[in-house]
Amino acid sequence: MPGLLVFVTGGTGALGGHAVPALVSAGHQVSALARSRVKADWLRRQGATPVEASLFDPGALAEALRWVARIPRRASSGIAP
Ligand SMILES: NC(=O)c1ccc[n+]([C@@H]2O[C@H](COP(=O)([O-])OP(=O)(O)OC[C@H]3O[C@@H](n4cnc5c(N)ncnc54)[C@H](OP(=O)(O)O)[C@@H]3O)[C@@H](O)[C@H]2O)c1
Predict the structure, then answer these.
(1) Structure pTM?
(2) Domain 5-65 adopts which CATH fold?
(3) Sequence spans of domains, the chain
(4) Which of 25, 50, 65, 66 counts the most CB atoms within 10 A of its CB?
(5) pLDDT in tens, 15-66
(6) What region, left, alpha or beta, does residue 58 occupy, with left being phi > 0 and alpha being psi -120 to 50 degrees?
(7) Which of 59, 46, 38 is nearest to 8 (CA)?
């Protein structure tokens, strides 16, 4: 089902880092959380749109998720290298 608007939490992690380019390659419009400029730049290079929002800020998340259709959950509470 190509052409979905997909928001990926944990899109810069080990699993999400594979999911984001795969979703873009499949023709979806992908957005993902980015917690640093480096991660935001990486998402842009994959063809995704970075969103700067905290998982712990319900208002910012609600705004970021307003337009999406699917949420593959890939975030963890761990710290990625
Ligand atoms: N890797 C596996 O083989 C595997 C297998 C089974 C299940 N899982 C589960 O799948 C999930 C993801 O695993 P992973 O290996 O991809 O983990 P990971 O490499 O540690 O990536 C975690 C992702 O979550 C983000 N994140 C962490 N805390 C956050 C916060 N407070 N707000 C916003 N984003 C936050 C990280 O962002 P930053 O990049 O900014 O740090 C990163 O994108 C975990 O729940 C893990 O237990 C993993």
Answers:
(1) 0.85
(2) Rossmann fold (3.40.50)
(3) 5-65
(4) 50
(5) 999 999 999 999 999 999 998 999 999 999 999 999 988 888 888 888 877 7
(6) alpha
(7) 46
